[in-house]
Amino acid sequence: MRAAPPVDAALDTGRRERMLTVLLHALAGAVLGAWLALHAEVRAVVAWATALGASTTLLAALGWWLARRTWSSTPGHLRWDGAQWCCAGSGHSLPLARVVVALDLGTWVLLRLHPADGTAPLWRAASACGAGGAWHGLRLALAAHAGAPPLADDGEAAR
Questions:
Q1: How many CB atoms lie within 10 A of CB 83?
Q2: pLDDT for 92-130, tens place per residue?
């Protein structure tokens, strides 16, 4: 099997993903508030509005906090040099032990990047629109070289 060619693809800033995270948490809060009001057999409109507003606001705030912690707000680049993955952004380059495709929607992929220094994984998204002409090369490199590191003959992970 031939190795994928080197690629340098732009990663999304995560703006849409942060907005979606907050929106889904707010929706979950609205459903929770409606369930609480129905479960308590509330008949007053003010109580319904209070339950919906409080739970929606609380869970939207939780979603905002999670989105800020999880999604990077700076653009970056994911590079495959033919031997190793590297994530570059805001003036620094981070070598990666591996890249895992967590979700593949065809024109958008959710990636979990595992830094080589063993720190916590980073979550980044890449899209065909953001990567432009490098999209096909990125997809090839991800298909050929993403996931768990290959195992050596003696069962240990190859480095």
A1: 8
A2: 888 999 899 999 998 999 999 899 888 888 888 999 988
